[in-house]
Amino acid sequence: KETSVSRETTQSRNLYEKAKKVMPGGVTANIKYFSPYPIVMKKGAGSKLYDVDGNEYIDYLLCYGALMTGHGHPRVIEKVTEQLHDAGTPIFGTPHELEVTMAEKLVSLYKSIDTVRYTNSGMEATLLAMRIAAAYTGKNRLAKCEGHYHGGYSQVLYSVNPEQNEGGPEEKPEAVPDSSGMSSEEKPLILPFNNAGAAEYLLRANASTISAVILEPVQGGFIPADPGFLQMLRRVTKELGIVLIFDEVKTGFRLGLGGAQEEYGITPDLTTLGKVLGGGFPVGAVGGSKDIMEVSSPDGGKDILAGNSSEEGKALFHSGTYNGHPTVLAAGLETIALLEEPGALKGIFQKTMALRKGIESLYSEAGIPVQTIGKGSIFNFLFTKSPIHSHRDLKRVNMDFRKQIDCKLLELGIYTKPLNRYSMSIAHTEEDIERTLQAHKQALADI
Ligand code: PMP
């Protein structure tokens, strides 16, 4: 019944018109825009979002994966309120107990993590990890993979752009800026994801300048690394004195409580976390082996580092007014507690698989080539049978039909930003999945 209603979104359009006058492009982040205007939300509850016109949506964006317990889980809200009430202030600006409790939790869950530093976003976490690696190795050029996202700053906003014929061949990619207004620092070394032979060659050829390799173990949360690619990176970085950073901002907690590193059985030197860690509040963290992390201690890890750093004993400057925010950590700790409950993760994975299977059969039965890809609680669906292992594979897929489907789905009450992946939460129900599949069926029929 619900899915046949064509939606009225006048209030969204009116607000967007106002927003355009006071914010560039009418949005607070470029990714929030889509044509003809973004839907403006007013309320969230469990798996649902409600827009300013009163329409209900089943939410698969989940704030780009951050909300793994859904919108406003009563236990998370209660802990946040309790924390604010008991402390009598949102923040102390001094050390406090939850910082230690959360760090102990991360040390127990993540094999690579001995010690932790907090930031306020995933982007700050990758930036800090990169600087820790530079301080530790005395080198400062980064290596990153094609199409991998680590935040919006100059050192990592490089990839290749095969659609425009920019970036050269996969065996020898050239760094192409993803943005205007980049700083003039040295470009990162670009590695082809899942091409172990070429990536190893490039790393060996540039080893003397490379401080770290940073990558998403599952690109964009849905293109898994081949185990052999990660094994090569672990072996070669160790041999060449390069720090291996797993950016688990997206995969952390979502593939398993111990992240992708647990699933793959590969331990990086540094791990970056964010999103789920804050239970919906802004957060980031860097964790890693004690000897490397120690460069950020107030004495610069003088004793431990002896002989490893070109600036031995000089502390790495790490600061942030809001780092380790008590309200945020209260939300994050309760979120992790909910995910640790027996069957919680398994339940999400089963629901994710049910939705993936449903989408695959629905389009296949209509004779449309389709595949779903992903791991754990995140997936994407693509209208192609060609295997997808990399950014270049992804860029070869025609997304026109997918975009039409997504826009139709929005009208039918299924929310994700067009062309975005689906993330699932403990709040999604079997009924949500059933409704989502009905909406896909209807979207396909309408198109
Ligand atoms: N790294 C990865 C893998 C991410 O997915 C993101 C966010 N999409 C970031 C870093 C940046 O995190 P934030 O948006 O919290 O700055």
From TrEMBL:
Coiled coil: none annotated. The keyword Plastid does not apply. Residues 160-184 are annotated as: Disordered. Keywords: Pyridoxal phosphate. Pfam families: Aminotran_3. GO terms for molecular function: pyridoxal phosphate binding; transaminase activity. It comes from Marinococcus luteus. InterPro entries: Aminotrans_3, Aminotrans_3_PPA_site, PyrdxlP-dep_Trfase, PyrdxlP-dep_Trfase_major, PyrdxlP-dep_Trfase_small. The lineage of its organism: Bacteria, Bacillati, Bacillota, Bacilli, Bacillales. Its cofactor is pyridoxal 5'-phosphate. Belongs to the class-III pyridoxal-phosphate-dependent aminotransferase family. Gene3D superfamilies: Aspartate Aminotransferase, domain 1, Type I PLP-dependent aspartate aminotransferase-like (Major domain). This is Glutamate-1-semialdehyde 2,1-aminomutase. The keyword tRNA processing does not apply.
